[in-house]
Amino acid sequence: MKKNIKRMLMLWSLLFLNFVFLELVFKLNLLVVTISDELFFLFAFSLSYSSFILFILMFFREKTIKFLTFVIIVSLSVTFFLQDIYHTVVENFFSIQVAGDFSLGLSFIGDAFLALRFRHLLYIFPIIIIVLINSNFKELYKVEYKFLKQPLIVLVFSWTCFFLTQEFINDNRIEDGVNIMFTDKDLYEYVYDNQKTVKTFGLVTYLQRDILNVFRVPPLREAEYRVLLEDFLSSRSGHINNQYSNILEGKNLILIMAESLDTFGIHPILTPTLYDLKSNYAYFENYYSPLYYRSTADTEWMVQTSLYPNKNVTLSMEAYVNNTLPNTLPNLFEVDGYNTYSYHNYIDYFYNRTDAYTNLFGYDIYRGASDLGLLDEVPNGEIIFDHKWQRDLDLINLTIDEYINDEKFFVNYITVSGHFNYDQNHEVFSYHEERLSEYFENSNESIPEDIYYYLATAMELDLSVKTLMDKLDEADKLEDTAIIIYGDHYAYAINEEDIWAYDNSKSSDDPQTLHNVPMLIYTPEKSLSGTYNQYFSSIDIMPTIANLYGLPMKYDFAFGVDVFSIHNEHIIKFADNSYRSKNYIYDALTETYSILNEDYDLNYLISLSQSIINDYRYNTLLLDYDYFKEKEE
């Protein structure tokens, strides 16, 4: 009996230490380990999980216990490793809610190998240990239950640990009108922030909550949620005109979302058109494009709707394609008599833009690569491993004749030439290889290899913009057209160390600056000329355009703010609930606040953090309950 108990305790210790080791390695690799409640939860939950697994294992015979223990440890190691790789690639944690993305993710399986680091070898350590134990401690698994009360004792112990741990989770909720100060209990129950949940409770607990929340029933009825939404929207401030209001009224607009356009992609010699726009027209030096889970698609969503994407669905423009959204860019322009167009030089493989842009956003016409004769659509279920990125120059040449003779037009371009991988095999590199090579041979300028190839894609965009402007000029439309160009996200496929070494506008001491990308506005009469230092991001583009054009936007239905507004704070909000402005910075990963202006204090920033979480949850409710459909009817 004593030997059996000793072996049972050894097996339990093996499982417990395996959980703790993997959780600590994972935190050290991706997050931050602090001596706080987070360590308590890590150990406490690991204690309960290992005890419960022991309870299950001891029902089996020795060989089965040995096999299952090996499978469990290997499975855990692989899970932690894959989540580490996934986070390295997309800066988020995989969720069962987005499992529908798995087949599409296989398309970039090769890129996952690029994310491999020496630190990932640590995840193999538990597997090595279990192999050594299986070879040298063959009696470890002789722990089968001998008496009826044994399983009851182990089960009671595991569940006691589990429920006692939950009792220590902070639940001191404070409510102030429509705003709620969210607690750790809310984080545990609703997983409103994947990164914070993992950081606070550990990866295994995050996975446990993620699975259980699939079956969670909303605590309120739809009618009650609508009352909450009414109260929330009625508490929001509207928009007050400013000196930039209506200055582009009646002008045509061409809006270009440039794939991976980064600050170092604008070069005085290699991209002269973009450089001229930056130097002589409007340039926003503190424009940020926060990287959400679906990168490009989520930026599109924010720009077209001024709503946040829902981080708990595979793709917002697909999940809500049947929603009613009156506040979208094309809808606002159509009210003012514009014809609206959207074009993209790739197919609907990753995102079903055809439905989203016509049925949800409301463009009169959407044409993708298959409509333009550039590529064939791929049959459902077929996986592409070799993506053929099309030229941005072709995108302009194949579309401009469709709208250039319209009296008033709003055109949305989504480019693709800037997409990784950045190497000599990139589809557009050969078109710019000679000029690129000649420049660096003559300049003796040192440049990282990946940025060298990346610059070829920026040169393609530059040529496309020049062609667009030339054709508009030839048709006497340039003087009546504004052009806005912005990056959809930073060039995240480039090694961060290379970016920090090459681009002095970004700093490893301030990782949020990675998301700082170009935003330029061309206006014929230079009414907006100059460099602007206001902080703003993707979700603020629609309110800004609405203000410039005098569009009939319902600003209280938007979560973005007009960049020129002097009555609103200008805050960049990131997917992990970090944020920054000219006055303060909050890093959700380290939970540190930096106050740059003595007029602000820590209590204000803590309240602001809660308000941002609050906004995101109301934003999700607006989408989930299709709030605007009832308003339109």
Number of helices: 23
Name the shape in a single word: globular
Largest sheet: 8 strands, mixed
Strand coverage percent = 5-15%
Biggest sheet, strands in spatial order?
7-6-8-3-9-10-4-11
What is the third-level CATH name, the topology of the largest domain?
Alkaline Phosphatase, subunit A
CATH superfamily of the largest domain: Alkaline Phosphatase, subunit A
**Count of discrete structural domains:** 2
CATH level-two architecture of the largest domain: 3-Layer(aba) Sandwich
Radius of gyration from the alpha-carbon trace, in angstroms? 27 Å
- The helix content is 40-55%
- Flag low-confidence runs: none
Report on the structure:
This protein has 633 residues and is of the alpha/beta class. The chain has helices at 2-30, 37-57, 62-90, 102-105, 109-114, 125-136, 149-167, 184-190, 194-201, 203-213, 222-234, 272-280, 295-305, 316-319, 329-335, 353-360, 392-403, 429-443, 449-474, 496-502, 541-549, 602-624, 627-632; strands spanning 174-176, 179-181, 252-258, 282-284, 287-288, 339-344, 365-367, 409-414, 481-487, 519-522, 530-532, 536-537, 572-573, 579-580, 584-587, 592-595. An 8-stranded mixed beta sheet has the order 7-6-8-3-9-10-4-11, with helices on both faces. Strand 14 and strand 15 form a beta hairpin.
